[in-house]
Every structure is written in C-alpha cells, then in structure tokens.
Design brief:
Blueprint (H helix, E strand, L loop, with lengths): L1 H31 L10 H19 L1 H6 L4 H22 L2 H16 L9 H20 L3 H21 L6 H17 L12 H4 L5 H6 L7 E10 L5 E2 L2 E2 H9 L7 H5 L38 E6 L3 H14 L4 E9 L10 H5 L34 H5 L2 E2 L10 E2 L12 E6 L30 E4 L14 H4 L2 H7 L1 H9 L8 H24 L5 H4 L5 H20 L5 H4 L2 E3 L11 H13 L12
Helix pairs in contact: 1-2, 2-4, 4-5, 4-6, 5-6, 6-7, 7-8, 11-17, 17-18, 17-21, 19-23
InterPro entries: SCAI
Protein name: Protein SCAI-like
GO molecular function, one term: transcription corepressor activity
Length: 613
Amino acid sequence: KCSASSRMVDDDVPRTFRALVESADRKFARVRDAPAYGRGPNRYFHKVFKAYMRLWKYQQENRAALVEAGLQRWEIGEIASRIGQLYFGQYMRTSEARFLLESYIFYEAIFNRVYFEGSKDRGVRFKELRFYARFLLVALILNRWEMVKVLVERFKALVDDSRANFRETNFKEWKQVVQEIIRFMKVDVAYMNTRILRYCSSLDSYPVSLPHVARFHAKKVLKFRDALLTSYHRNEVKYAELTLDTFRMLQCLEWEPSGSFYQKHQTESRENGASSDYSGTSGLIDINLVADMTDPTLPANPRKVILHRPSVTQLIAVIATICEELPPDSVMLIYLSASGKTGHGNLSQSESSGSSKKSSKLNVLPRTFPEQNNFRPGVHVNGKGESALHFENSLWLGPSRSGGSNCLYPGDIIPFTRKPLFLIIDSDNSHAFKAGSSHMFIAFQVLHGAERGETAALLLSPLRPTFKRQTDIDETQIRSQFSLFLTAPLQAFCQMVGLTCSDTDVDVYDDADNIISAAFSGWEMILCSSTSLDLVWAQVLSDPFLRRLILRFIFCRAVLAHYCPRKDSDQHVPFCLPELPNSMSPNFEAVQSAIIRLAGHLKVADYFHFDGS
C-alpha cells in the first residue's frame, strides 16, 4: 500500500511539472511579441514571470523525482532561457538595468552548465542556437567583451557542427547571424577597451563645474524620460535588430553601474575547453544575485525604444504613442540615422522589411502632412505628381522603388511638437530639417519655426563626413561620424585625423581625454552663466545625458569647423537650432583653445586651421 502511494506521488510530480510548463508557455506566447514601448503597466508580464518562477521553484524542489521520471538537462536549460528572455524583454521595455543583469545571470548559468550540449535532437539544437544568439546580445549590451569573444567562437563552432551533422537542414540563416556578430565585433573592436559609453559619474561629472550646474535653474526645467532610437541604412553593421549607431546611442543614454557587477561576477575564461563541473542536472540559479549588483544610488535610466528599419507609418505611430504617454514637464529624445538619398535606400525586399513585419499590429496613423498638388513653377514633377524637390527634403526609410510612402518629411514631426522634443538627425540630408534655406517653400517640409507648441531642440549632422584618410575607413563608419562624436568624442577625433588606439600611448590617450574633460567643465560653467542661452537649451541643461550631448555637439562643431576649409563649412560642419550662445562658437577663445591644445597634444595641429595661426 505504501509502495502504491509512493508511485502515485512520483507520478504526480512529473504530471504537475508538465502542467506548469504548458501553463507558463501559453502565457509566454502572449508577451513574446508585445511591442516594447508605452508607459502603460505591463500587468501580464508579472503573470508570466510568476508562472515561470513557480515552475523554476518546483523543478528545484522536486529535481530528484523529475530526473528519475526522465527530465532532460535541456529542459531545465529551456526554462532558464525563457526566464532570461523575459528579463531581457522587460529591460528593453523599461531600460531598467536590473532586468538586463538578471537576464545575464540566467544565460551565463545555462552556458556554464552546458544544459543544451550533447543532444542529438535537431529541435534541441535549434534551442541551443537561439540561446547563444540571445546571450550574445545581452553580453554585448553589458560590454562583457571577453564573454562575447568566447560566445562568438562557440556559436560559430556550433553552427559549423550543425551544418555537418544535420545535413538535411538549411542553416544558412544561422550562418548569416554568425557573420553579423563577427562584422559587428570587427568594426567596433577599436573601441572595446577605451572609455565606456555609458554615463559614468566619476568621468562625466566635473568637480569644478558641478556647483554651477547644481545652482543652475531655468524658468522651466524638463526631465528626460523617453527616447526613440532608429536607423535605416543600406548594408548597416548590426546584430539582431541593434545597429552599431543605435547600440552606441543606447549606451550613451544609460548610467554606468558602480562596478560591483563587474567585480563580483567575473566569468573565468574556459581555456582549452576546461570548465567547472556542472554535469549534474542542476537547476540552482541564484535569482536574487542581482540585488548585490545594482547601484541604488543611481537615478532611473530614461526609457528607450529601438526601431530597426521601421516603415514611416510605424515610426510615426510609435512617436505618437510615446508622446501621448509622456509625463508633464518631460522631454522626448528622437534619434534618426538615415540617408536622404534615394539610392542609399535601395535594399532587397527581405532587408528592407525589418521590424515592419509587426507594423500590422500597430494603429497606423494617417499621414500628418497635407497633400499638395500645386507646386511652384520650376519644380520638376514626375508622372505621379510627385515633386523631385519633395523627395530631396526628406529621409528615406525604405527601398527607393517604393516612392514617397517611404519618405519621412520634417513636417511629419510637427504634430508631435505639442510636446518638448530633442531631435538628433544624423543624415546626409539633415539640413532638410533646417528652416531658412532658399528651397524650403513647401510648408510641410519645414520643422524649425513651424512647431505647434514647443520649440524643438535640433542637433543636425554635417551633410558630408570629414576624414584625413577616408579610403582607409569602412563605409559604415563614414556615415556614422556625427553619432560617434556624440557618443565617443575622443575616438571620433582620432578616427578623423587617422589615429588609432594602437598608434597612441595609453598615457597620451588618457591625457587627451583629460583635455576634453577640462574643456567640457569650462563650457558647462559658461553655459550655466550665459544670459543669452535659449530656453530650449536651458530647460534641458540640468539633465546629465542631454547636457553631455550638447557639450559633445559643441566639441564636434568646433573640431570640424577648424579642420575643414571655410568654403566647405556648410557641408562639413554640424548645425543646431535654436542657436547656442556665441560664447560656444568654434572661434570663441574658450572653445578654440581646447581644440588647439588637443590637436597639439596628439601632434596633429598641422591638420587644422586656427585664426591667427
């Protein structure tokens, strides 16, 4: 009788486990494709998370019985991988670092315990490939470069092994994923061991100017709460849906943790395949470890939405959603990196679709600019009634053959200027957003001066990049020069003049960084004491992220203004609207002297043109 009772209990354990798995999986399917934007409470996430935590706890408490009943190691790995996915999805939705760290903990545990390894089942192999792809993305965003290198090698070897052992299956897409991450690493390798991109209080706040910033108070002060980051270029360097430009900007708009994460959670390199012994079917992952890694002294990160190759309607719909939910006295940052030339948008159908596959789930808004058929004489109009000038003053978010439906016009942004906007436009047609040009006579093509309530802050890239030896630089880096100046100014300076990290002594490089920091500190004090600072800039100056972007823009403008011949300045120098005070102009002594000092320190002063020199 006792034996029969014991068998019933043993049967109940796997039956309960399977029921918990099915319940959790059903809930997971409902949140997997949910849009990662909007401030509304994501109540269902908590239900899914609770279901997986219950499942995780159950397998821990009944592990022996489950193993005896036939539980496979990959099944524990799949549960842990789903929890890692949930955490990462919540990080993408909220930008809270603790979710990213939790995701890393679960993925690293799966990796160390080789949960998926050894299975000859094709379905399990696909689960293992998806695990590596997702873990790579998390490690990449966390800047765990040593782990990324290990993962890339393992991932590549796994794809090669899959192609050899599952010959009837096409692994072409997985090979493309491997090529993506290798290319991403190759382009960004020069910046892996240099200064971090995230905002670090010890590096990006300056003791001398800090009291001035603390005392500064504009008539109106805005809080930076939300950002939308998107890029659309031919042949972009990307991994998954994260392009190199959005990757850098994403990190630029986050706080750097205090360092405890990197000190407490270093992964030992597994040389020659050696690793700790996790051969047992273990499900013991410390889900509370993140409490020891987060920094409670840091403010919350602004929420960020990343759109990869969106359609115009999808982009407008997401902007509308964010603006609608933007809290009072807040500002939204919009970063757009795209070409203004139709030829650059000529992509294959699969390449151009991007995330627009999900756009059918959005409430697609009507076009926000009026249809105008009566263009001024002298403007060429094609057979479809479309003006050539009409297309020239826009950004292209799609293949050129699709016509004007893929044009994003400056006027498309006007309805959203009822809320404060901080726009960064990195494009060879960025000046389409600049009022006052002689050809800007069509009303819906102008943004500055046509706002509906709040004057937008605009940082506009040069129309052409500037390099000492452009032939030595990858095309993708050429078009990202402005974004690099805003996220890594010293690296951008060195790249422009043809220097690399290997060319520069570490101490020389650190001293160059100190020169820039001293300049930024001085410029902060000038801005905080300026009586001519436009309210558009003054109301965001207290925010550390936006203030740093403004300082880096001033640096970028000064560097390029003194590097390029004056006759080419319209093409090669960035522009901002409204204009910053004259005390921040490239020829102002406090600005020019910093560029002279930096160029002299790096022994490239002969490349520049300074007044009086």
